[in-house]
Amino acid sequence: MTTASYYIDPAREAPRFRPLKAWRHMQKLIANKEDTEQVFHIIEALNGKAAFKDFERFMATPEGQSQLSKRTVLPPILDDHTPLHSLPEGSVGRTYAEFMEREGLSAAGLVAESEKRPAAWREIEDDLLWYGNRLRDTHDMMHILTGYGRDALGEAALLGFTHSQHGGAGVSFIAFMGGRQISKAAPKAARIRDVIREGRRNGKIAHRIIEQDIEALLPRPLDEVRQALNIPEPVLYRRALDIMAQDGLDPFKVMETAA
Q1: Does 189 have pLDDT greater than 70?
Q2: Which of 65, 131, 143, 253 sits between 20 and 30 A of 34, alpha carbons compared?
Q3: 3-state DSSP helix/strand/coil percent for the chain, to nearest 5?
Q4: To which H or E segment does residue 110 belong?
Q5: What is the pLDDT of residues 91-107, one digit of tens each?
Q6: What is the DSSP string of 34-95?
Q7: What is the pTM of this model?
């Protein structure tokens, strides 16, 4: 199948590779894993042309072309929890709403974090911007679909999964550095590096989540969707959490312990 046409604004600047900037923002992220703004800075500094190549891959599929033609804006749908709570227990949508409320998160909040960067890029209105927003807006949904939590190790493993699905040196760098920091505090038996590798491996095996009709997934049973998308169980991740718990290590504070 040939790639459908799409629009890239000619005013869009070519991305620059800025490793020193990425390193500075990485230090801030290590100091506070909840400082999500730093993630966007790191990805912007290191990903280069990866986003465009990934978008081309998306547009080379019938699923990607279908999603672009709809141009669905996800945050209002995902933040409207009343209809999601009315879905059956164990469905993707209801599980997502419960997760977001438990974690004190919102899709709009992630949008706000991404927009803390300099404003020049926001003047660009093209299909690549829509795609980048879709990548951002599906991040917390990927937590639900993959089984990786919001603890430090879960975030690092999910970024490993994400890198296998989309590429990008920035995403890979954050996953590597997250695993490296956690390894400083976690018991060796937790096999942190293997957990990150498991995330990468699972991302390669699974169907690309970005190409799915997210709205259509919401009412379906989560277990059924995981099977349909060939998303493996995060076995080593769950084992590592058990080992850290036995060692009295809080997975949400492991980065502080390693600092």
Answers
A1: yes
A2: 131
A3: 70, 0, 30
A4: helix 107-114
A5: 999 999 999 999 999 99
A6: T-THHHHHHHHHH-TTHHHHHHHHHHTSHHHHHHHHHT--HHHHHT-HHHHHTSPTTBHHHH
A7: 0.92
